[in-house]
Amino acid sequence: MAAQNNYSKEIIEISRIERAMSYPVRVYIMKKRISLIGIFLLGLLTLNVAGNNAVAQEKDASGPKFEFKAEDNRLELDTVYVSEVEEVNLEIEFKNSGDKPLILSNVRACCGTRVESYPEEPVNPGEEGTIEASFRVVPRTYSINRSVTVASNDPGGQKVLRISGKIKEDQ
Which letter, b or e, does each residue of 81-116 get, where b requires 16 or more Cβ atoms within 10 Å of its Cβ? Predict the structure, then answer.
């Protein structure tokens, strides 16, 4: 009980000293306290950001990694002549350049392009796979812009392959 009384007396004494200080001195002390708290919080924020970056880099370093073999995820078709073909069949090659098995969960295409098949078994690290897709051509001259989107267990998210080219009626 005596220790508690001494503590209470010290608090009362500090309060008296603070009241006895002039207003500018009290403002100065308060600004110092706020500055120190701000520096402390900024330090904590910096440590948090640095820790998150380390976790993100570690996350990028491991796991499956889906990569289309087509440069820049773009597949440029040569000019397709309608008199030669009514349907264009594509074999889209990809590779798992990660260090864990790659599992394709969904492969879809747009604009009348059909996904015929894709590997349903896991693609092991370093191995390659093929997605087969096709689309019909209309007998007229036009440009095609299509895409194939692949969802997998790659931490980088979905990957999109852009397909472009020209369709012409006759040679």
Answer: ebeeeeebebebebbbebebebbbeebebeeebebe
Question: In the CATH scheme, what is the code of domain 66-168?
Answer: 2.60.40.10
CA–CA distance, 113 with 47 (Å, rounded to integer): 49
Give the highest mean pLDDT range of 3-7, 43-47, 70-74, 160-164.
160-164
Other beta carbons within 10 angstroms of residue 9's beta carbon come to 10
Contact present, 164 and 80 (Cβ < 8 Å): no
Scanning the structure block, which residue is given the tokens 């209309």? Answer: 138
Helix H or strand E encompassing 50: helix 23-61
Give me the residue spans of the domains in the chain. 2-61, 66-168
Rounded Cα distance, 131 and 90, in Å: 8
* pLDDT (tens digit per residue) in 2-42: 566 666 777 666 666 666 666 676 677 777 888 888 888 88
